[in-house]
Write a structure and sequence with these properties.
heterodimer; A: 313 residues; mainly alpha; MetI-like fold; 2 domains; 14 helices; 78% helix; B: 282 residues; 11 helices; 0% strand; elongated
Chain lengths: 313, 282
């Protein structure tokens, strides 16, 4: 177990390092010179060189990276937003919890709705209920999440006027975005739950449980559902990048002041420092959540930690 | 009877409902896209200044937008953009995935480690974030957003091609080829590639819907196609400005998009069942 944690942690740290190098390199892949963009074209060459020295752009690349990374690690200093001239950290600070709350709620409802449905579908495979659920979820996979959001706005916000369609002032404001998020992800959660549970049902220990005379309900609750806890954790870790992707678009549509809205607006405004910081922070959050889930899975399911000891994934 | 695999495919395809319905839907989209100038009542960017934001009527079956442009014509011409996204986007993903997957699977060792690490990296960053980063670097526009989505989605291709290559590499006919003095590129292109084509066709058809959805999403965010393109995502994004005064702007391009994606989904499931029934999940 301990060596498993160390192994995953090292892999995670290395991923974080690589992402940070990539994000840092983005600055140099940008067309145009950052100093030119910051100061405009009219400024004299000497002044520009002075600024270049001031920002450390005249140093070798690896030293620049170390300076950049050290600032972020030490004081969360991501530099200044080119448009608003405010520290990027101040822009992001209030937005991270909002995105986490929004994504967390979506994930919670997704699991609460889709996992029981998936369980029932697996247990009553090929029943009319299973067919109906599979049909509906197949249909929903064809609907892009952003259009689901638009339809919800038209229906509940415009036609029936029962829910607010834009903003983040009251808890009611979160109803439509979370609904859109769940509608966008529940189909794949149902499908994954179903196929995992079908695998569990086939396991020998389930057969053993039946053989020793346990009833259907007892087997389902004691043996199958127990393993479903592991399954839910796996699902959480698999769906996080997908949920965050959805959150970016949904925040933009519903005007939720989270990271997603910030990153889209910053790209449109070409506020590069903010984009860079958002990409880094979101990737870091994703990697850390995945690590956390991996640890949980390792604790819950001894088979996985043994299987992963070889490092194969 | 000398039946080619293609003939066998067609014979069993006749009994596969998913494939038939999907193929019909996509054929209808292709039909509309090809004949757009004939079918569309107006040009997609032809403004009718007197008829701004008109609800659906006999003259404009899908209504008009804020410039008085006919939405039906926009939706019809939009089919061209969507098919362009599907074809070009999926082709780039396939090209990247096949190249990297085959190199990785064939050579193994350090090449494999490095290439698969890049694939892991692209996998752990949320797709849209990576795509947004690429769009930031390249700038807005349809082609750039297609490239961005391809740089995100190629990893699935690479993984499967790598696994297939590793499995084929150890078979006797490869060793025979090597014994005859064939070079690595020849082995990969002439010996291995033909054997991964079936799996490739399955992957392409499964990848089409998500390519369309993600690229359209970028247009919806205002980072893909720019006005006056008839792109459905862009049309929907424009519709968001008029949710209370022109709901039809948000309805019709969305229906067209869902219709097309649904068709690609069915086609993908059908092709997978026909070519590789073992890949079918429960």
């Amino acid at each position: 177990m301990f060596s498993y944690i160390i192994k995953r942690l090292t892999q995670g740290l290395f991923l974080v390092f690589s992402v940070s190098v990539l994000v840092f390199a983005m600055l140099y892949m940008m067309p145009g010179d950052p100093i030119d963009q910051m100061m405009g074209w009219k400024v004299s060459q000497e002044k520009k060189d002075e600024m270049r020295h001031f920002y450390g752009f005249d140093l070798p690349m690896h030293e620049q990276y170390i300076n950049w990374a050290a600032k972020i690690v030490k004081s969360g200093d991501f530099g200044l937003s080119i448009r608003t001239k405010l520290p990027v950290l101040d822009l992001m600070k209030a937005r991270i919890p909002i995105t986490l709350k929004f994504t967390g709620l979506t994930l919670l409802f997704d699991i609460l709705i889709a996992v029981p449905l998936g369980l029932v579908c697996a247990y009553k495979k090929d029943s009319p209920f299973d067919r109906a659920v599979v049909g509906v979820s197949l249909f929903f996979t064809a609907i892009p999440q952003f259009w689901t959001a638009v339809l919800l706005i038209l229906l509940f916000g415009v036609t029936w006027k029962i829910l607010p369609l834009h903003g983040y002032e009251t808890p009611l404001h979160l109803v439509l975005p979370v609904a859109a998020g769940v509608l966008g992800s529940f189909a794949s959660t149902i499908r994954m739950t179903k196929s995992e549970v079908l695998d569990v049902i086939k396991e020998k220990y389930v057969l053993t449980a039946y053989a020793k005379g346990l009833g259907k309900t007892a087997v389902l609750i004691k043996h199958v559902l127990r393993n479903a806890l592991i399954l839910v954790t796996v699902l959480v870790s698999l769906s996080i990048p997908w949920l965050i992707s959805g959150a970016v678009i949904l925040e933009h549509i519903f005007g939720i002041p989270g990271m997603g809205g910030l990153i889209v607006n910053s790209i449109i405004m070409q506020d590069f420092a903010v984009v860079q910081a958002c990409v880094l922070v979101i990737s870091l959050l994703t990697v850390s959540f995945n690590l956390l889930c991996d640890f949980l899975i390792g604790i819950l399911d001894p088979r996985i930690s043994i299987a992963l000891k070889g490092g194969e994934r | 009877m000398n039946e080619t695999p293609f003939m066998e495919f067609l014979i069993s395809a006749r009994r596969n409902a998913n494939f038939l319905v999907g193929a019909f839907i996509i054929a209808s989209v292709v039909f509309v896209a090809v004949l757009a100038p004939v079918l569309a009542p107006y040009g997609y960017d032809e403004p009718h200044k007197a008829d701004r934001l008109q609800p659906p009527s006999a003259k404009y079956p899908f209504g008009t937008d804020d410039f008085g442009r006919d939405m039906l014509s926009k939706v019809i011409y939009g089919a061209r953009i969507t098919l362009q996204i599907a074809l070009i986007g999926t082709f780039i993903q396939m090209f990247l995935g096949v190249t990297i997957g085959m190199l990785s699977g064939y050579f193994g060792g350090l090449v494999d480690k490095v290439l698969m690490y890049i694939a892991d990296l692209a996998w752990c960053i949320p797709g849209i974030i990576l795509a947004l980063a690429v769009v930031t670097l390249l700038g807005k526009g349809l082609n750039n957003s297609i490239i961005a989505i391809s740089l995100v989605n190629w990893t699935q291709f690479a993984r499967i091609v790598r696994a297939k290559t590793m499995a084929i590499k150890n078979q006797a006919f490869i060793e025979t080829g090597i014994a005859f003095g064939e070079k690595a590129p020849t082995i990969m292109l002439r010996y291995i590639f033909p054997n991964i084509v079936p799996a490739l066709i399955v992957m392409i058809s499964l990848q089409l819907p998500s390519t369309v959805i993600s690229t359209t999403a970028l247009s919806f965010l205002g980072l893909g196609s720019q006005p006056p393109s008839p792109d459905w995502g862009l049309a929907l994004s424009n519709g968001m400005k008029y949710v209370s005064r022109g709901q039809w702007l948000s309805i019709f391009p969305g229906i067209a998009l869902v219709y097309t994606v649904f068709g690609f989904n069915l086609l993908g499931e059908g092709v997978r069942d026909l070519i590789d029934p073992r890949m079918k999940s429960h």
